[in-house]
Amino acid sequence: MSSQDIPEENLPAAQDTAHGAVKLADEKNPFADPGLPPHEHRVQDIDERAAKRSERTVALLFTLSMLATVGFIAAYVTIPVDKSVYIWPLGHISALNFALGMTLGIALFAIGAGAVHWARTLMSDHEIADERHPIEASPEVKAKVMDDFRQGAKESALGRRKLIRNTMFGALALFPLSGVVLLRDLGPLPGTKLRHTLWSKGKLLVNMNTNEPLRPSDLIVGSLTFAKPEGLEEHDHGFQTEIAKAALMLVRIQPDNIKDKRSLEWSHEGILAYSKICTHVGCPISLYEQQTHHALCPCHQSTFDLADGARVIFGPAGHALPQLRIGVNDEGYLEALGDFDEPVGPAFWERG
Amino acid sequence: MSTTTTPESRSRGKAPAGEKVADWADGRLGIYSLAKANMRKIFPDHWSFMLGEVCLYSFLIIILTGVYLTLFFHPSMNEVEYHGSYVPLQGQLMSEAYKSTLDISFDVRGGLLIRQIHHWAALVFLAGMFVHMMRVFFTGAFRKPREINWLFGFLLFVLGMFTGFTGYSLPDDLLSGTGIRFMEGAILSVPIVGTYISFFLFGGEFPGDDFVARFFSIHVLLLPGIMLGLVVAHLILVFYHKHTQFAGPGKTNKNVVGMPLLPVYMAKAGGFFFLVFGVLAAVSAIATINPIWSIGPYRPDMVSTGAQPDWYMGFSEGLIRVMPGWEINFWGHTLVLGVFIPLMIFPLVLVAIAVYPFIESWITGDKREHHILDRPRNAPTRTAFGVAWITLYFVLLVGGGNDIWATHFHLSINAITWFVRIAFFVAPVLAFIVTKRICLGLQRRDKDKVLHGRESGIIKRLPHGEFIEVHEPLSQEQLHTLTAHEQYKPLELGPEVDENGVRRKVKMTEKLRAKLSKGYYGEESQIPKPTVEEYKEITSGHGHH
Known about the structure:
The structure holds two protein chains of two kinds.
Chain A: H1 15-18, H2 43-46, H3 48-78, E1 84-87, E2 91-94, H4 95-121, E3 128-131, H5 139-156, H6 162-174, H7 176-182, E4 205-207, E5 224-229, H8 239-246, E6 248-252, H9 261-265, E7 271-275, E8 287-289, E9 294-296, E10 303-305, E11 311-314, E12 323-324, E13 326-328, E14 334-336
Antiparallel strand pairs in A: 1-2, 4-5, 5-6, 6-7, 7-12, 8-9, 9-10, 10-11, 13-14
Helix pairs in contact in A: 3-4
Chain B: H1 7-13, H2 17-29, H3 31-38, E1 42-43, H4 50-70, E2 79-81, E3 93-95, H5 96-106, H6 111-138, H7 147-169, H8 174-188, H9 194-202, H10 211-241, E4 245-246, E5 255-260, H11 261-286, H12 292-295, H13 314-322, E6 328-330, E7 333-335, H14 337-354, H15 356-364, E8 372-373, H16 380-400, H17 402-409, H18 413-452, E9 454-461, E10 467-472, H19 476-483, H20 508-521, H21 532-539
Parallel strand pairs in B: 4-8
Antiparallel strand pairs in B: 1-5, 2-3, 6-7, 9-10
């Protein structure tokens, strides 16, 4: 409440008069409420020329708004939707969006500024005190309501005829169940769907970018490659749902550097295939640091050591990334040797 | 409303056109009685009362622009190939939802502007509600009779968060899809039913083909419908209770001082709607928001770095990021505490502030109506609690943006995460202690000001060479304003034994209440305000220094 900090009588010009004992309206209680301060006139209240100036300002603002609306329509009609302009310091932006937004903004703002200026300078600024009335009812009203209620309750005989009351409560409690039952077909039951992906024995690992089956020689040490199961095409119906589970991340690490024994067994010449879906809440992991063999989820920064069975070394993920067992088929292409042996993605109650 | 044929009703026939229309409406709606009570209704003026208006107006703007957007948006997840006017995405596969959002942005004239106003207004709406809520909290405006309206406001804030979330998920772009995936992962962590809820929500496995259509009806119908009802109820109660006001000359708990609705408040508040709308339109003209075209369509196996939710979801993001990855496996089941605990703390943080008014009124035992606002310093424990809550909220916001902090300030992400983990527990406590101290300091300063006047900055040299600073006595208006607040006394439990020497049973809850009351109003928690006697003793005869 900054208004208290510099009261007018303490401003430099008034200091001489303020100096000395404080003048009090109520000698007995200096803290008593002195009542509403007297109204102070604004310049517009006493100087008709100032009032006229305010009037012109308000009218000018309203006129500006009209012009801006005309400008809006003109911009809408004349500026092509795909035209881009350079506006400092915004850079290259859509000319139409800029023109429409600025004209609309001015048209609206000017109305608001005009109305507020009008209210502040020309409308009466006499403060008025209104009385409050207690929210709660008077005892008489309350008594009347209670009487009415008792009368109504008695006439309904709800308290006396217990059989009616109880069966009514039963009926009212049961019928919403129909609504709950109707929700059943919102989706299928989970079953074991979260435990299976498209991977199975013999499925080739297909490069996500080139759409070509991968050979071990395509992967150099230190590289990170994303793969999908053979036969899954972008245009397929359900591609999104399948790739959400099957997305694979391939890295190649010197076999000597692979610390986890099982991980080494499931790899092929140092090529490791891990689920790309983070075990925290399911973001795709896409950052790989080849020196440390750490993979980082960009969403919540769970960090996995891919050289050590993809165990979690930092962040909120709860368990290691599932690894896919891979090998090479007769033609020299990388293939899966089965599905993941545990569910991919975030953990859930039935995961175990 | 007169129903008989009297000379008065005949005179109605000769009235001017406007009055005739009003007469017609009054005969059917009873508008004159309504206008009698409200047309010159008094609204107090304080800048902080404008915060609620910002919320109301941005809500209206969101509805207006949102209706426009539904005319062009296709809430469908059918895969289509893009052949629109945005060249970089030519030939890409995407959902119809994403494609229609691109069309709104590039082919509908003014579509981009309306989309951006819609999104900017949503951010302002949530920010406005947050600040408005804090205003109400710190000034104690939530006290009787306004507790229910506080809850309505709180519900609006929570529903606003989810309406925002479902809204920015609709374009089905890479960023929003990542947010949905996060939500799905969080739902999966719920013990026993999590998997089922997820399958029912998404119509099967994530992402499926259904969620955009389902989120659409939640976003445009279910949640806004409830919110509209709550906004109306909120406003009716504001009208019914009348505004609160700060203490000051002429302002009491039994009156409301300000300007009448017609014309001043109507012009100011009505004008303010246009000011808010105008600023949002101008911001949308120059500041791009959610450029889904550069983010790309959603693919569950792709992600960009620096993914962030809209700001109001940031604190839940912080919770999930800093929580250690605890998982417990037993009897073939998994308890995903690393995700489930944050999922539970999220509502707890919100509920903590929502139930506060009821806790405070239980501690004070005050059943009276309060229409005079507290200055935050005069309620140190409440203020300290509020600041502690905000501190927790912002610590979690920092946690939610830990990657952004790390890249912008060249800090270690691990260090930031650990900082947030510790600060989650420590920072609110520190904030509480510091705030309380500051409040007490300000109370002391007020007391000094009342008793000794304000420092005038004038240095006076006395005849014997001593320099003193002249203190100006305060006016009665100021004296009144600085001493108008009430101070509670801490609750006394009374003697442990009654007059017959029998030990009284004191309930545990009563003991707790007394303890809290001491924490609120004990010697450590408030500076006794100056009394008239103190004032007279100091001012009588001695001049001032």
